[in-house]
């Protein structure tokens, strides 16, 4: 996988369940935050797109949980990207640090809607296509 962005995190106590491991739903927060930060580093904001009448939404998420993270663990979320038609696909892996143990492998498909209808987002299309050249 050709990762083009990564973001480090540290697990907080309240993200863990009674078993002492990160609750499965929190991994989606990590993945989403990584996607948002990636776009923000390139001056693309979901809230700004919304203000322009464009809503980028998650259409599908596929997550494989491989190993659990625990409170205090440091980890890195890595991101790769693909663009097909009106679909933006984010491939993301989460690795525990420092041993780089794979914890999560995810694929998230996003689409853009304007006025409630699926449509291409010229701003994202141009950015992603230029990035992937």
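^ Assign residues to that structure.
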């Amino acid at each position: 996988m050709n990762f083009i962005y990564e973001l480090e995190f540290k697990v907080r106590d309240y993200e863990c369940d009674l078993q002492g491991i990160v609750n499965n739903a929190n991994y989606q927060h990590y993945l989403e935050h990584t996607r948002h930060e990636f776009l923000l580093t390139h001056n693309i904001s979901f809230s700004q797109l919304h203000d322009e009448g464009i809503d980028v939404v998650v259409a599908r998420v596929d997550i494989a949980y491989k190993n659990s993270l625990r409170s205090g663990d440091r980890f890195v979320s890595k991101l790769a990207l693909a663009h097909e038609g009106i679909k933006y696909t984010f491939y993301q892996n989460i690795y525990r640090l420092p041993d780089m143990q794979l914890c999560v492998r995810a694929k998230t498909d996003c689409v853009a809607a304007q006025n409630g209808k699926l449509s291409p987002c010229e701003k994202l299309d141009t950015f992603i296509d230029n990035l992937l050249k």
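The CA atoms of residues 89 and 109 lie 4 Å apart.
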